[in-house]
Amino acid sequence: MMRNALKDNIRTLFRPPVISWALYDLANTSFAVVIITIIFPVYFTSIIVSPEIYSQNFGDLIWGIAIGVSMIITSFLAPVFGAIADTSRSKNKFLTFLTIACIFFTFLLYFLKEGMVALAVILFIISNVFYQTSMMFYNSFLPQLSSKKNTGIISGFGFSVGYLGGFLSLILIYPFVREGLEPSNLSNIRITFLITGIFFLVFSLPSFILLKDSPAIKTVKINTSYISYGFKKLANTLKNIKKFKNLTKFLISYFLFSNAFSVLALYAAIYAKDTLNFGLLEITMLFILGHIPTIISSFFFGWLTDKIGPKVTITITLIMWIIIILLITAFINIRAVFYICWILAAISTGSTLIASRSLMTFLIPRDSEAEFFGFYSISGKVSAIIGPTAFGVISFITKSQRIALLSTLFFLIGGLVVLQFVKVPTYRLRNF
Fold first, then answer.
1. CA-to-CA distance for 421 and 46, rounded, in angstroms?
2. Count of CB atoms within 10 A of residue 6's CB?
3. CATH of the domain at 341
4. Which of 422, 286, 261, 269 has the alpha carbon at shortest distance from 352?
């Protein structure tokens, strides 16, 4: 029976909608890796906000502010868009529009050069708002593509394919970053932004065609615009969310530990360059190295989530995270320790997010997936305001990225504690 269940789950992964959904993760990870995590942050803090022109660690501060502003805007838009999408049954349309808009502004990053700080901040904020909002619609398709028995493995499949996308993106841009941040190579660095946009577009196309909105469980008739109704539904959800106590507790937990993840995602490459003196090529190789085990582990942790439950899986990975941060800050001059910790961090991040997305599917009411994944998105987005901004401010004031990194322990331990009070239901909620 167990073997048959496994075969059924594997068969599910090869359904066209599931494959197209996973390919979207492959596509958007290129933006996450190149623009948010590795190349653009280093280019931004080293070239656009050059330390030779501005004060030391000023780039860290401006980068944190840019991230914070983009997440504030996203946090405001996400639940409203979600309410509109659930009502109009137009998640696919929103996903398509937001993705294309993000790609367009990603192309514009190519034109940024030294000293163009204001323009760089504006273009990054706009592109990141479109990217982060599109992710909410992508995540909201998971409940309709999965059942209670295979949510973890499908979620893990998406993450695994996503990490493959990050790996392929880094391989594609590798020839352009080989010479690092030398003045003669800066045009090649900017070409990587164009490559990212093209990669994002090509692998998103299947999701635009094959992902379909599910029929509504209940028909809603409205006598006003979708935007107006979206705000009203948001207000109603805020009023009724107290009915979902476990959901509220989990969102608080997710918000707390996501602060740490946001810091690592947004400052890992910057930390490696400025504190550990890694070159851009070495940083790129480090991320390539980190993607390989994560592609495999995503399948494993997807399976493990279905076996032992998402709450236990998240607990395990958060404990791993606390150990990783302590090791990185304690053995700052030993590169081998950082390499090992980075691989473990990559595995832990993917595993935590797989389990978190799976747990959300059991805590949200049916027919309100996009709206409640909007709140899930908000928890992650607000954490990307506080965590990175705190890192940037602490780094700028203390002139120590190591001290700034230690601040993430507060968020990790807090999230771990709150998570223990979440009771996981054995069935999916239907509606209000």
1. 43
2. 13
3. 1.20.1250.20
4. 261
Report the domain count for the chain.
1
Residue with tokens 């695994």: 160
- 17 contacts 211 by C-beta, under 8 angstroms: yes
If you count them, how many residues does the chain have?
432
From first to last of its 432 residues, the chain has per-residue pLDDT tens of 445 544 555 666 667 888 888 899 899 989 988 998 888 988 998 889 887 777 777 888 888 889 888 888 887 777 677 666 666 677 888 889 999 999 999 999 999 988 899 999 999 999 999 998 888 788 778 777 766 666 667 777 777 788 788 889 988 998 998 888 888 899 999 999 999 999 999 999 998 888 887 665 455 566 666 667 767 776 776 776 777 788 888 888 988 888 887 777 777 778 788 777 888 888 887 777 776 777 666 667 767 777 788 888 889 889 988 888 888 777 766 677 777 777 787 777 767 777 887 788 778 776 666 667 666 766 766 777 777 888 888 888 887 778 888 888 888 999 999 999 988 776 554 443
Here the tokens at position 199 are 């990669």
Are the CB atoms for 416 and 319 separated by under 8 Å? yes
> Quick check: is 8 in a domain?
no
Global pTM?
Answer: 0.74
Q: Are the C-beta atoms of residues 106 and 31 closer than 8 Å to each other? A: yes
432 burial via Cβ count (<10 Å: 0-12, 13-18, 19+): exposed
Rounded to whole angstroms, the Cα distance separating 61 from 395 reads 8
Domain assignment of residue 228, yes or no: yes
Classify 219 in phi/psi space as left (phi over 0), alpha (psi -120 to 50) or beta. Answer: beta
Q: Which tokens sit at 157? A: 């499949």
- CA 125 and chain centroid, separation: 15
Other Cβ atoms less than 10 A from the Cβ of 113: the count is 14
* Neighbouring C-alpha atoms within 13 Å toward the C-beta of 140: 35
How many Å apart are CA 127 and CA 108, to the nearest integer? 9
Q: Which domain holds residue 45?
A: 17-213+223-419
Domain assignment present for 328: yes
Residue at 329 is within a domain: yes
For residue 87, the tally of other CB atoms under 10 A from its CB is: 21
- Would you give the DSSP letter of residue 332? T
**Amino acid code (one letter) for 291:** H
52 by Cβ neighbours in 10 Å (0-12 / 13-18 / 19+) ranks as exposed
The token pair that represents 142 in the structure block: 């998971």
